[in-house]
Amino acid sequence: MSRPVPLPAGPGQESAWDYPRPPAVEASDELVEVHLGGEVVARTRASLRVLETSHPPTYYLPRGAFVPGALVPVEGSSVCEWKGRAAYFDVVGGGRRAPRAGWHYPTPVPAYAVLAGHVAVMPGLVDACFVDGERVRPQEGGFYGGWITDRVVGPFKGGPGSWGW
Fold this sequence. Notes:
Elements: E1 14-15, E2 24-28, E3 32-36, E4 39-44, E5 47-51, E6 58-62, E7 71-80, E8 84-93, E9 96-104, E10 118-121, E11 128-131, E12 134-135, E13 137-138, E14 147-148, E15 152-153
Parallel strand pairs: 1-15
Antiparallel strand pairs: 2-5, 3-4, 3-11, 5-6, 6-10, 7-8, 8-9, 9-10, 11-12, 13-14
């Protein structure tokens, strides 16, 4: 499988192809919101962006950014080759429940220890996610949790034919 041709980044943009592998983690003071059932279930200006080659950023919000009752632990886990074992949450708000829409790393590997106490959300499983007022577009494919905004250009892994990138 051939590597796709990265799109050129314009002024104020980043290319997902300039992100490193293994992923980097960077603090962000952007206003990040998660909406479900007509309610804001999480809001923060203290998120972490995980940046990995060919992926839009995944935003991790401090657990305290979620309103009480918005995160319900559920059974099951998965393993990230970089960060360790993830555990899942249903996200609840406004009378709706988004199954397994959130995840976290209760005991991340030491290189990603900063992610402890933070929760990521799949933007395609909730009503909407926003970064500084811009509505996020979910990363294609349903497996990855990237948040696509106008700030970042791809192409992005996740769609058909991208598994081997």
